[in-house]
Write a structure and sequence with these properties.
21% helix, single chain, 0% strand, mainly alpha
Length: 43
């Protein structure tokens, strides 16, 4: 989603997904957790 300004008026909006569990062996999961504002080092 690029933002409400660019969305179609009648299109269904996608909700946020539930936070996924991070796999410490996958760097992309660590970066995604940081993007969500989570602390991937905390268990």
């Amino acid at each position: 989603a690029m933002g409400g300004r660019y969305e179609r008026a009648g299109a269904p909006r996608a909700g946020r997904k539930a936070p996924a569990a991070t796999d410490p062996d996958r760097p992309e999961d660590l970066w995604k957790a940081l993007d969500r504002g989570e602390d991937p080092t905390r268990s």
